[in-house]
Amino acid sequence: MSFRTSPTAVGYVEDVSPGSGALPPRAWYASSDAKSLSLNGSWRLRLSATADAEDDSFAEEGFDAGDWAEVTVPGHWVLQGDGAFGSPIYTNHLYPFPVDPPHVPTDNPTGDHLRTFDLPADWPSGPDAGGAVLRFDGVESCARVWLNGTDIGEFKGSRLAHEFAVGHLLKSAGNVLAVRVHQWSAGSYLEDQDQWWLPGIFRDVTLLHRPAGSALDFFVHASYDHRSGEGTLRVESDVDGRVTVPDLDIDVATGDAVTVPVQPWTAETPRLYDGELVTEGERVPLRVGFRTVELADGLIKVNGSAILFKGVNRHEWHPERGRALDLETMREDVLLMKRHNVNAVRTSHYPPHPAFLDLCDEYGLWVIDECDLETHGFTEQDWRDNPVDDDRWTPALLDRAARMVERDKNHPSVVIWSLGNEAGTGRGLTAMAEWIHARDAGRLVHYEGDWNCRDTDMYSRMYAFHAEVETIGRGLDGGTEKRRELPFIQCEYAHAMGNGPGGLADYQELFERYERLQGGFVWEWIDHGIRHPELGYAYGGDFGEELHDGNFVCDGLLFPDRSPSPGLVEYQKVVEPVRIDGDGLEGTVRVTNKHDFADLSALAFEWSYQVDGETVEAGTLSVPPLAPGESAEVKLPEPPAGPRSAETQWTVSALLAADTAWAPKGHRVAWGQLPVAPRPLPRLTATGRPVRGDGHITLGPARFDARTGALTAIGGIEVSGPRLDVWRATTDNDEGAEWQSDTRYGVLWRTLGLHRMQHRLDAVESAEDALTVRTRVAPAARELGLATVYRWTSDGNRLRLTVSVSPEGEWTLPLPRLGVRLGLPGSADRVRWFGGGPGEAYPDTRAAAALNRWESTVDALQTPYVRPQENGARSDVRWVEIGGLRVEGDPAFWFSARRWTNERLDAAAHLTDLTPGDTVWVNLDHGQHGIGSQSCGPGPLPQYFLRAEPTEFSFVFSVLDR
Questions:
Q1: Which of 121, 122, 446, 556 has its CA 20 to 30 A from that of 818?
Q2: Rounded to whole angstroms, how far apart are CA atoms 136 and 202?
Q3: Which of 140, 191, 448, 492 is catalytic?
Q4: End-to-end CA distance of the chain
Q5: pLDDT tens digit string along 340-387?
Q6: What is the DSSP letter of 709?
Q7: Closest CA relative to residue 288, chosen from 361, 381, 225, 207
Q8: pTM above 0.85, yes or no
Q9: Cα→Cα distances 735→549, 904, 936, Å
């Protein structure tokens, strides 16, 4: 043993090599009959400001760390200790330190970790006991390791496994494991992923016994021939042994191939066969899935059939533990994906915890496994000095590729290897692709940055607009000859930041229309909000970072607590594997199986019949077990007799016919609604006349201010307003991204002044049967405006408001919204409506809005986006009841209600900035502008624009019986 006490040797921190001392990478498996000891739990921590602040004496046996702090491993030290150990840093692509590779700042938070442990009493010992391996599954960003005072090595590659041979160093009791972890290292230049920078030992640490003759590396090759229905199994193993699969009567030597009839593995039908690799010293469980991945006929095919990815990008995230995920959190992710019709995952932008891939094998998800590589920050200097085009870094790149492939190669769910993300182009990437192709010919290779497809097996893009995607689908995009013959995927699209993403249904229509388009992966799975006692959830800048990218880190289909956002519910509907449409008036429903492999035998179909949004009759529907791609027209029963003056429709649902591993019997997989009779519009014959009193005017049940014509009460219920409202608290997608080349309407709306419209009263006119209020609504400093007329009529019991809007001046921008806003007493709480629901919907996010009767509270109408913004609108509303009033629309309208104004919502940075007031503010909108995904993608398509043009719409108010 030797100890360097002065000066501390830290040259390895800035060394571009991947490290030293680690064993070659090998296949991961969860367990075997060999002993193992988890070293997770409470560790001692000493935090230093620099890499060389302390010497190595802490690694010596007998060192007293009794006054050190305690942290939990797996974990990140900046998420523990209530800020005592520093703070998280969020950047999208900017390096939070000067770019001078491979150098890192002198200020380099360094955590010395200590863990003492005893071997279990049954741990093998003696001359024939074999050896032991110490395994680290993830440490950010650079670690040096000692065991019982011996320096055993150092490594980089934060999201990659590293093993060290330590059997010769172990003692039966009092073992001292010391790990020095540096936040910054040369490896940080290769890990510029869009996420929080979080140092620490954040994945498992395990001691593995390695008996004599135990398994080393092994490669399970399990192909499937879709023509013969047979699978071929061959297991390559560094140590000779036998492979058994009892269900297939397989018992063969390693290296030998055997072909037998099998049921294939797919993401829709994830058939796994339990087997075992038996060597002289170890029995390793195997889960074998037979499937063949190939590029054929210009398409990605599995088992002979082209597949369509309905995927998500998944960072690992937990709002309290960061990237330290337990098995149940991973399982929750997979179950949520399956239940929301997601069939694929891109492990952005690093290999996940290996147990996650076990779950993908078990439940069925296609996986693009991505290497722990991104150098996005070099774009700031036109990619100069980019490590992927510098031969000095190539060994590190190849090490990262090998550690991914070797660890994960036995997972049938992994069908594509990805070289990394946003790392430019260069010789190092080519070297990685060549190595992967040579090592594993049974999978394809992906890298989005390779637009010429020199090294890859598919053309991949991120955030391509709809029109370009269609051009690619039609084969008119040009490019190299090789690229033109390859399939296309959107490895990132539909940026799910805040309210949105809009346009999902339009993308899916393109994916399903053109064979070359093989789907995509929504960005991303979960908001990376950090739970915070004052802010609710924190995002970039909330920890005082010098550089940060704000709430760009909150762009997921799940909120940080893993509750589904409206975006996920929309995606579930858009990608559902069964299409249900037809002719409600004729009483026929057309069912189409959109699976790639599974028939419909696992589903049961039900119908229900609604009259004015209420189900009056329901039953089962017999649908044949259609094969993939097949359709059938099925006759619906005779509709029940009912009133002719009602809106009627059929709802047909496809449900799980039995419990599955991922959802219970009755889980709804797909649904469709077929209109029968249209809605009769509300009618009101004006019989009442305005009557002037002392400072007020009455008309039917309503009371108005005589000077301003403003409504003040209906039937004794106080009302403030209504008046024209065109502003909405801008969404992340309204605001767009600074680098976007197309128009960012949120910025332009604010520049125009639509958030500070002034209302000029021109006239209050009483006629025989109407009260008319003429106004002009316009922003200061601009000549354009909206001439707005409010015409009130009554039949004595009800009140009708007709709003006429005429643009004046040159309006070159669409409007955020167009409708009226009114205030009700704060006691208003329960809400009932007939319209779209149960969740929010906007013009390009309304596929999941089902037409029914719904109930809620005002508070439950809110969508808790981490950064507050426009939310909670319900679409296609026929009528709504709130605060003792019923409001009917002509035509149908959007409805929202909240306990704060749109202006307060607009000013809020966190949900905790919003406190309820004494008024419930209600928006009744004739129109809303589309949402799009311009926070990192296209804005709304033109058909979802809310243009400023002459418009008229009406509402009928009545007082509910108390």
A1: 556
A2: 9
A3: 492
A4: 86
A5: 999 999 999 999 999 999 999 999 999 999 999 999 999 999 999 999
A6: -
A7: 361
A8: yes
A9: 14, 17, 10
Question: What is the spatial distance between Cα 137 and Cα 156, in angstroms, rounded to a whole number?
Answer: 12
Determine the Cα–Cα distance for residues 378 and 386; give it in Å rounded to an integer: 6
Amino acid found at 49: A
Beta-strand relationship, 414-418 and 175-182: unpaired
Which residues, 6+ apart, have CB-to-CB distance to 795 below 8 Å? Answer: 684, 685, 686, 687, 688, 700
Cα–Cα distance, 715 to 820 (Å, whole number): 20
Q: Are 59 and 148 in contact (CB under 8 A)?
A: no
Distant-in-sequence, close-in-space partners of 59: CB < 8 Å, separation ≥ 6: 3, 146, 149, 151, 176, 178
Phi and psi of 9, rounded to 5°?
-85, 115
For residue 482, report the phi and psi dihedrals to the nearest 5 degrees.
Answer: -60, -45
Which residues 6+ apart lie within 8 Å of 126 measured at CB? none
For residues 495, 496, 499, 502, the Cα torsion angle rounded to the nearest 10 degrees is 60
140 vs 129: CA distance, rounded Å: 33
Q: Distance between CA 345 and CA 751 in Å, rounded?
A: 40
User: Is 735 noted as a catalytic residue in this protein?
Assistant: no
In sequence order, what E strands does 186-298 have? Answer: 195-197, 200-201, 205-210, 218-225, 230-237, 241-245, 250-253, 257-261, 273-279, 283-288, 293-296
**Res. 67: pLDDT tops 70:** yes
Rg of the chain, C-alpha, whole Å: 32
Cα distances from 166 to residues 125, 207, 503, in angstroms, run 14, 9, 55
Residue showing tokens 């929309």: 570
For 636-660, the pLDDT digits (tens) are 999 998 778 899 999 999 999 999 9
Note whether 597 and 687 are within 8 A (CB). no
- Burial of residue 780, with CB atoms counted within 10 A of its CB: 0-12 exposed, 13-18 middle, 19 or more buried: exposed
Instruction: Give the three-class secondary structure for 560.
Output: coil
Reported as type and span, the H/E element at residue 510 is helix 504-513
Amino acid identity, position 211: P
617 is known as an active-site residue: no
Nearest to 580 by CA among 654, 493, 498, 473: 654
Cβ–Cβ < 8 Å for 881, 831: yes
Per annotation, catalytic residue among 374, 422, 576, 840: 422
